[in-house]
Design brief:
Spore Coat Polysaccharide Biosynthesis Protein SpsA, Chain A, 7-stranded mixed beta sheet, 16 strands, 9 helices, 295 residues
């Protein structure tokens, strides 16, 4: 049993790129009283010197069951998409085994600039808070951006069961979505974001699910550093990324429709933006563990 006074902030990450060390050290710096947990692999075990590290392979119950029903519909490699689903099973098993009733999940390419205590207060009594996005045409497909998610143990159990049943009961469930994406000139891309979106749509009457991207206590969380829009917000861009200006140690960006600067509590360096993580790191300087290992 893992003793903790507040909901932990959990990262699930395999392999050991340099960027993950910046992410972890920044999270610790702005959340000094909160347990920061990395569910990782042997490649990043050395981060256990400064965060609570656990081997994700110890928490894979249910991943094999999901793998048996999964149908790949994405331009990304199947292993990548499967891991995106597996992370929720891994997190669920970790919470279950250690008696954790609620947890924060953060993608491992997010830099945090503020204590997440404000969200623990705001989401009290909520079953799940995640990045809700508008429904697509005819509301037959809904997607989310779960890069910052608050979730209870009861809810994540339900979510993982839903993943398996979604594919097992109707293997062609996402065919209509794939056809719509093709018709719009895109490449069919079904991921855990699609499945979580369907979970939200099917369970909003019985679960209290809220949007983690809404402004709370004068701050918001970024969905994608490369994207101008976060739901109703439209942000100023420069060279293909948000035009961030730091004010009082916090990143801000101009919302063009309101002509107002919003404070970002976290930035999400998705995809090609990952290379920028060291440039936006603001916690105390350190020597990369990879450099120390090479001495």
């Amino acid at each position: 049993m893992m003793e903790m006074m507040s909901a932990p902030l959990v990262f699930v990450h395999a392999t050991c790129e340099n960027n993950i060390e910046y992410v972890l050290r920044q999270a610790i710096h702005v959340n000094p009283e909160r347990k920061i947990i990395l569910l990782g692999d042997e490649c990043n075990k050395h981060f256990g010197l400064f965060v609570h590290w656990c081997n994700l392979l110890d928490y894979t119950e249910g991943c094999g069951d999901f793998n048996g029903v999964y149908i790949h519909r994405s331009p990304n490699h199947a292993c990548f998409e499967l891991f995106c689903y597996y992370r929720w099973f891994i997190l669920k098993n970790f919470m279950l085994r250690h008696g954790i009733s609620v947890a924060f999940y953060s993608d491992s390419d997010m830099l945090w600039y503020d204590d997440i205590a404000v969200y623990e207060k705001a989401f009290s009594g909520v079953d799940m808070a995640t990045g809700l996005a508008p429904a697509l045409e005819k509301n037959f497909h809904y997607t989310v951006s779960p890069n910052f998610t608050y979730i209870t143990l009861a809810c994540i159990k339900r979510l993982c069961n839903y993943f398996i049943l979604l594919y097992a009961r109707n293997p062609n469930y996402f065919d209509a979505v794939s056809e719509m994406q093709k018709a719009e000139g895109g490449i069919p891309s079904i991921s855990d974001m699609s499945a979580i979106g369907e979970f939200v749509k099917d369970n909003r009457e019985t679960l209290n699910i809220v949007n983690s991207f809404e402004e709370i206590a004068e701050g918001i969380v970024d969905a994608n550093f490369n994207s101008q829009r976060i739901n109703r917000y439209c942000f100023d861009m420069k060279d293909g990324i948000k035009d961030i200006v730091f004010q009082n140690g916090m990143p801000t960006c101009l919302e063009t429709e309101e002509n107002r600067r919003y404070i970002f509590r976290a930035l999400h360096f998705q995809g090609k933006a990952k290379r920028l993580i060291p440039s936006y790191y603001t916690a105390p300087a350190f020597e990369l563990r990879s450099n120390l290992k090479n001495r």
